[in-house]
Amino acid sequence: MSMTWLTSAFAATAVVALCAGFSPAQAAGGKLVVGFSQIGSESGWRAAETKTAKAEAEKRGIELKISDAQQKQENQIKAVRSFVAQGVDAIFIAPVVATGWDAVLKEAKEAKIPVILLDRQIETKDNSLYLTAVTSDTVHEGRVAGEWLAKKTGGKCPVVELQGTVGSSPAINRKKGFDEVVAKNPGMKIIRTQSGDFTRAKGKEVMESFIKAENGGKGICAVYAHNDDMAVGAIQAIKEAGLKPGTDILVVSIDAVPDIFKAMAEGEANATVELTPNMAGPAYDALIEMKKSGKVPPKWIQTESALFTPDTAKAEYERRKDAY
Amino acid sequence: MTLSSSALRRNLPQCGALIAVLLANWLLFPDFFSIRVQDGRLFGSLIDVMNRGAPVALLAIGMTMVIATRGVDLSVGAVMAISGAIAATMTQAGWSLPLVLLAALGAGLLCGLWNGVLVAVLRIQPIIATLILMVAGRGIAQLITEGQIVTFVSPGLAAIGSGAVLTVPTPVVLTAATLAVTALLVRATALGLMIESVGVNRLSSAYAGVNTPVILIAVYVWCGLCAAVAGLIVTADIRGADANNAGLWLELDAILAVVVGGTSLLGGRFGLLMSIVGAAIIQAMNTGILLSGFKPEFNLIVKAAVLMVVLLAQSPALSLLLPRPRSPANARPIAAKVTGKAPGKAHKEGSAP
């Protein structure tokens, strides 16, 4: 018993000595070490982003250290400082808020550690503080959803919209992109729009009221939801009103989480635009490229906003259900 | 007779507000009161108000008891998330419905017991004691669901959220039943009196022979149970447990419902039915806003304005300033004011002291 204790104590001391002597990057034998400050577990998508980041790191033989900030910027700042102290090769941040990063990013810059932002941008006067940002264009997502609907309905469609949380940037941008398409198609009109707070429960509640307000749903051609969760709630509300989601009222949404593919496979939803949880993959590639050939990546790496429809739904569901 | 008329006057602002909000909804949306049967279930905006208001009404029932003891329970939203998370994960894992329900309610009971022991035995202030579970509880729920929305296929459990008993939505039936049981427990026995006495003065209640720790623990347990039922309803309704959002901020709506219903945060007196009226006012406003077609940016402003009016109407300081035609004590100063402006008319009313 005491032997084991002694051995492990010795091992621990040895590890500490090693860490003090060399940077972990060297200790790992030339392996790239990346520190990732994740926001926390706010949604299924966020959990999938973390999971994908781990899987993609493993694929490339990168050592990933993840720090969960529990929705607090101060925790993210602490995490970045600790990554700097550990001497990692790069730091990824999914910033919880847009401002207040300058000081800590300067520390990283002085330590010559590149910082890559994932899935959200920050507001700073000095763009050189981060290497690049890998994000989706949320305005474009709204546009893709709108264009699909315009094509599907021949540009004639009274739409009800389930907005995300009032004032949040994805809600503002996904509305903006969709509105651009509506403006181009005189037959398309947003007849009702309300916030469903990005949640299933609120999506369902708001849709219930929309159906009642629009003559039992007869005046509604389609529902456009700013995320899949609200769409799933809306589908239930449509069913409970005695209508067929996907036929009587078309359902188009954004995110491409597994549950919407399930609904599409059952014919209850019509289209979703993907917000890929693989933000880390392109970031790793840019980093490896830079380490290898010194090529500096562009300031913004835009992820693809692919559209998915029911014909691939079943296969996509099988492919995704474990990633989330 | 005098008692009922004073009770009526006390409750007039809330009942008036509810009627006013319902009428406003009707003006904004003429079909507001129309109800039909759809798939063996009542269907209409008024039904939506009752159905969607059920979780907050349930929380308000438990919260009324806690507030009557001069406490408050901030953890009810988190308890909802926990009970929902347990129900969804257990159903997904294949447990039978009775066991799932028992476990979810058991979790609510345990949470209530935890709060009750902190308040009654360890004498931690209720707002702090329940804050612990408010913060930690959501984390527990997230641990259970592993941060995902756990969905399930179970017609039995789903029926709790979107089923119907004799065409009445199950959430409404459950709320009515909980209200009836609670009312019976506190009003048909001396329990209500003891709860009120603890709220007025814990120490003298103890001296008078009331077992204050037991009473306190009991109200927190009851509150936890109500929250567990509300959590089951919300989870069953969307056929999934959303640990991040289920019951989020609903503790504040529940406290608001109780206060709007006229129960004082200082404890000692409570109106169970009026808390339900308070919950109905809040939900009638929510549904009305959705039907009206206002921009979502105005939701909170409209809500705040209406609540402000209701709370002002209850303010004792303000009611002294307002005319009270039936009360002879207040009639004089008003008449005197009128005298200054229109002497002739005032003389006819005979106000000269």
From TrEMBL, chain B:
One of its GO terms (molecular function) is transmembrane transporter activity. The keyword tRNA-binding does not apply. The keyword Transmembrane applies. It is a multi-pass membrane protein. This is ABC transporter permease. Keywords: Cell membrane, Membrane, Transmembrane, Transmembrane helix. Coiled coil: none annotated. GO terms for cellular component: plasma membrane. It is found in: Cell membrane. It comes from the Bacteria. The chain crosses the membrane at residues 12-29, 49-67, 74-93, 99-122, 172-193, 214-234, 246-266, 273-294, 300-322. It holds the Pfam family BPD_transp_2. Residues 332-353 are annotated as: Disordered. It comes from Azospirillum griseum.
